[in-house]
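Teaching assistant here, posting this on the class forum so everyone can see the example we discussed in section. The complex has two components, and the goal was to see what a joint structure prediction looks like when all of them are supplied at once.
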Amino acid sequence: MSTVTLPSGARVQMFGTVLRALAVLRAAQLAMWLWVPVVYGVGRFSSVVLVGYLLAVAWTVILFSIGLRRHSLPIRWVLADVAIAVTSAVIVNRAFAVGDASSPRNWVVAPICGAAVTCAFFASRWIAAWSIAAITGAWLAGAWQDIDSPSALTMFSTCGVIIVFGLVAALAAGMLFRAATQADQATAAALEAQRREAMAEARDEERRQQFKVLHDNVLHTLESIARGELGLGTEQAREKCMRDADYLRGLITGAADSIPTDLGVALAGMGRDQSALGLRINQQFDGLPQRFPGHVTGALTGAAREALNNVVKHAGTGEAWLSAYGDGAGGVVVTVVDRGGGFDPEAESTGLGLMRSVRHRVMEVGGKVGIDSAPGEGTSVEMSWTP
Amino acid sequence: MIEIGVIDDDQMLLQGMASWIGGTGDIRLTATAISVEDYLVTPRTPKIVILDLNLGNYTDPVRNVAQLVGAGLQVIVASVIPDRAYIAATTEAGAAAYVTKNNNLDTLADVVRAIHEGKTPTTPEHAFWLGRDNRPRRPRLSPREREILVAVGNGTPHKAIARQLGITLSTVQTHLERVRYKYASVGRPIDHAAHYSERVREDSLGREHIPEPSKIDRHPHKAS
């Protein structure tokens, strides 16, 4: 059984929820800095710091609007976010005055923590670990100018904050993902159970139908013999028994494990009806698809009936072959063959009538018909249908 | 007069068979047995024998055919229900023909006569099931051979096949003989007993769906 991922699956829903939370977090992280230029004055910060901030806001908007629309964040977008965090950590940190980078006046700290968290949620374990290491390294590289300033301690504690954020996010992601996967598997298992139950019911129904047909035909023959109504050894009894035997054989041919199919049952029943007209029908069915459209079953059975009618009326023979087999891909081939008089397909109207009535039924359901005949060589009608 | 024998576990069928086959005029049933062992020890063993595919004595159909072929007999396999895998495997074991037990005397008589003349006739039912052979280690047939096998299996007369394909009647027969030859000797001959178990392993066609006598519940209604 393959795991079904439905658009409304728990994992998809979980990704959506996490993305929304991350978008709110990132927006808050960037918005927190807005008071800084107001309090300290815009002039305190270099243009790199200010332009970098605006670019970071723009990138955040793009990243999350795409992610929220797709309900997931492809890995290349996650890695781009990490790359931008790394770049901004190095460039923007160095644009601050000594001591300012490792202080609340630096806007970079919060969004690079956000990038670490996003990555921990959406990337695989090793990619997330390397990304968080890269972000931490970039932070240190950018802020290293503060090593001799009083804010050196803040510089190191910020490293710890990035790593802790990332670890907690990775743990939470793992827990959420496992829960969502379990929920999805439970849903899929429930659906599968439902499907199996429906199939078993359909099969039971099919079997009931078969038993009903058996009862109506074969059992009736056996009972007539048992009650002495049908004299054994009479031509009538012989014919009746032979018809029923052919019908039963049609139902059970094939591999030892094959289950009678709708099409097989329909064809065998039709063959039995037609053999009552005095035709000996050799039935051979194999590998017919288990699930087959009902209207196609009806059309092919009807067309085969027409072809057999034609044998009775025109072929001048008492024997015909009715074969059907699956092509292994859901399609079937049904053939009706006789070794009677045949006809010249280009000259005779019998052929035209046959072609019209058979072809009409089969082509209406999208199948194909091939008719071959020659005087003295019998007639073969091949009907094929593919899904 | 062609003499034939029949191996079948159905006594009723054996009793009626002699007069039924006598209806042909040129074929006589002169030996019957309910198992291969019994047949091989009867004083008179006609060279052509009709063998029931599923003898009710839990013997393996393929082994039965191999045993009779090994004794120099020509085997016509007959069954009520065609079992694709066993039809193919008994053909490989050297069966001369396969027929369904559908009481069609003309068909059976034609098969017996053809075998008596030294041919390997392929009946429509035989062709149909060989054409449906889907075992992984089946013989490799050419597209033309398959085409002809499928057409014969549908009941198409040989001369119609010859006309459709633009070949002669004897070429159709040659193709069919080649198919049978490939089956009989696809590099997996059964010449002696040791080969037999090899083939069974290759086809994973053992006795898995012939239950052991001990495993059969003889009193199903008393259970539970």
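For the discussion questions: Chain B has one domain: 2-194. Chain B has ten helices and five strands. Think about how each of these relates to the inputs above.
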